[in-house]
């Protein structure tokens, strides 16, 4: 008779095998349903906003992806999508029409579902969704700005003393992988004397000067080519402040010039008036 521990282990292994088989079967059914009806698979729960329907091209991609993968199991997913995109471009409008019609039908359904969903929202939920939408838009804008600035040659930020130390000693650091090497370098950095750290501190200060000079040159270049949108926020605020001060000084100068002109005109008018009065008085005396 088998020991109790061995029986327990066998039962546990059988249960795990049954769970794996069940999960695999469930996953297979879900994948099959996704390929059979992609829109139904992408539908959301009642508490979530309805998802926008897939356009005709994406529907074609979702339909053809398993077919292309089964025919070409050795190619990468990027090449699979590229191949499907090429096929889509070669298709005639009549061949594309079923996918476009399905998109239009689901688009109308989406509009109705969206209206129904929005009618159930409270004012607080509407305000919260608007806030989240603004945050997502701002995040995408910041990410796009950062990517464009990098492509336009924006200088790299200055390194810290520890980063400089790490870059110099990373190759010979102890450890079989990157996390182990990082930990070893952190320990070595903590054990350095102050005079040893001072070398890297000075290098970091020099790197700050390098970054400042390169950023000024780069931002001047961005202004020349009309890409002020890539400038740093503090640079934009500084420019606005300078422009406001220049405008204020110009207004003050203009006001001062007007006062001078007005004063000069006033003096001229007084002189003319005095001369006219004087001439009139002389004529009166003669008569």
Structure report:
The chain is mostly helical. Helix 3 packs across helix 4 and helix 7 packs across helix 8. It is flat and about 125 Å long. 4% of the residues are buried.
**Cα distance, first to last residue?**
156 Å
Mean pLDDT across all residues, rounded? 81
- Which stretches are low in confidence, meaning pLDDT under 50 for 5 or more residues running? 1-46
* Main beta sheet: none
Helix content: over 70%
What pattern of helices and strands is seen along the backbone? HHHHHHHHHH
Global structural class: mainly alpha
- Tell me, what's the shape? flat
The DSSP helix count reads: 10
Q: Quick gist of this model?
A:
By secondary structure, the chain is mainly α. Helix content is 80%, strand content 0%.
Can you give keywords for this protein?
mainly alpha, disordered N terminus, about 290 residues, about 80% helix
Could you outline the blueprint of secondary structure elements for this entry?
Elements: H1 4-36, H2 38-41, H3 56-71, H4 77-90, H5 93-119, H6 123-151, H7 161-169, H8 178-190, H9 194-224, H10 233-286
Helix pairs in contact: 3-4, 3-5, 7-8, 7-9
